[in-house]
Design goal:
The chain is α/β, with parallel strands linked by helices. The protein has 14 helices and 17 strands. β16 (about 365) and β17 (about 370) form a beta hairpin. Pyridoxal-5'-phosphate (PLP) binds next to α5. Pyridoxal-5'-phosphate binds near residues 140, 190 and 251.
Amino acid sequence: MNMKEYIEEAESALLHTYNRYQIVWDKGDGVYMYDMEGKKYLDFVSGIAVFALGYNNKAYNDALKAQIDKVIHTSNYYYNVPAIEAAKKLQKISGMDRVFFTNSGAEAVEGAIKAARKYAYLKDGTTDHEIIAMEHSFHGRTMGALSVTGNPKYREAFQPMIGNIKFAQMNDFDSVLAQVTDKTCAIMFETVQGEGGIYPATEEFLKKVKALCEERDILLILDEIQCGMGRTGYMYAWQRYGVKPDIMTTAKALGCGIPVGAFLMTEKVAQNSLTAGDHGTTYGGNPLACAAISKVIDLFEEQKVLENVNEVGAYLAGKLDELVVKYDVVKAHRGVGLMQGLECEIPVSEIINKAIEKGLLLINAGTQIIRFIPSLIITKEHVDDMMKILEECLAEVSK
Ligand SMILES: *Cc1c(COP(=O)(O)O)cnc(C)c1O
């Protein structure tokens, strides 16, 4: 079958919940993807901030193959060595105390919400606690995660959501304060909003919310699913300002392609929230997924990934700044490390389609923002190659 025939097959069998680009992938290597007709693409999407270490990373692949030959799955009724190792390494890179492994980001968010509600329940025995989330946030598609996602379009058809969720404005402390009541059990947001358009939480906002949480015994939940795992130049984005959350979610690049996530908490929350029987998962923390996490964390250190993010991220940011000056269609640039956004005056779909034709993968965040979330091992030369194609596209749409 050729690519077109495969796409017809796909559209006759898969539920149509995505308007997909007309590409069927064959393989990936480093920062490049190849479609089944052999066309090569420079990838600045990395499977939506997943493939941090690049495609076809030999050390990673070998670790997974070795684990497959031992055991892929056991059950959470027993211990397994990869899960123990992965949990200890996660403790070390995050500074958090307790880990629960999930299979996705949304499930990590679900767990975080349950932990916060249980914490509040144990304090006062009531069950009408409130969570404050942010407008324009994205936390996933399950009912709980959707309930805290500040995008009414995603929520509308699926009402009712879980109850007692309030929304405030990211980086507007007064808007948060206005929603706080004595029923507030958690305040949650992405340390850098991803899908919402690459909006980093400011240091001031983080610190004020943290102080408020401490004062009122409210839990701070930071969603690090997209911005975590080195993307901002820190293993977790909050580490930049030292504003430690009570509960944190991580996924995407955590497994670098193996579907896995986790929620982590401080010892204080762990001792006063979820306990045996409160939460569970069949697959979560299985040996294959945890062998992936464990290897990913090792490779981050061995390959000096954070240094590369800081260096190449700054270089990319500088280049994107130039575009704001040079092209009228480019309105603004913002971002941290290798999580950058370019806000345009026009819907960016045309720019992205042109880039794909020219062998460059880009993705949007909202209709007017191009998002740059490449693998964390890209070089300045890759940035130059990307910029050359992007500028061609910008020149064409500017005509
Ligand atoms: C992708 C994402 C999620 C959801 O993760 P899934 O693995 O798709 O369920 C949650 N929060 C943020 C910030 C994300 O970027």
